[in-house]
Amino acid sequence: MADTQLDIAASPRRIFTVDEANLLLPQIDRIFREMDARSARARELSDLVADLEAYWVKAIEDPAHEENARWAALKEELATNLQALNEAAIQLNALGCELKDPNRGLVDFYAYVNGELVYLCWQRGEKDIAFWHTLEAGFPGRKPLAR
Asked: Could you say which DSSP state residue 119 is in?
């Protein structure tokens, strides 16, 4: 527990109210939708690159190889998509939330509940923030917010 407290002190984070965090949800959801498209394309590209490499092995790396240009273009597009996913995660962090699981669309916000520093927890598909958990508990430890 002391380590968690030190990490927070070492990198100051914004503390949210439920209302402040809820105001960011449309923007966060938009970022997740962009991540969905990039992630799907990255998986597709990764499979295509892997297929070419499995079939041609090291020969694909030869610039004179008939599939080299296609392989190189796929790898470049994959790198671009992975970079865009990284930038989306940075955007989420810049909003003040913590990306916990991009596939599930899970983010946490620092907040105080009953005087204790906790995470407000939101997952895509939820209308608004209705849960919280301790810093140590994670998603399985979610508890409903008192309204």
From this structure: E
**Residue 12 carries which DSSP code?**
-
CA atoms within 13 A on the CB side of 56: 19
Please report the pLDDT score of residue 5 as a whole number: 43
Radius of gyration, alpha carbons of the chain: 20
In DSSP notation, 80-131 reads HHHHHHHHHHHHHHHHT-EEEETTTTEEEEEEEETTEEEEEEEETT-SS--E
> How many Å apart are CA 42 and CA 36, to the nearest integer?
10
Torsion of CA 60, 61, 65, 67, to 10 degrees: 50
The pTM score is 0.80
The angle subtended at Cα 29 by Cα 145 and Cα 144, nearest 5°, is 10
Q: How many CB atoms lie within 10 A of CB 92?
A: 20
Average pLDDT of the segment spanning 108-128:
96
Q: Coil, helix or strand for 82? A: helix
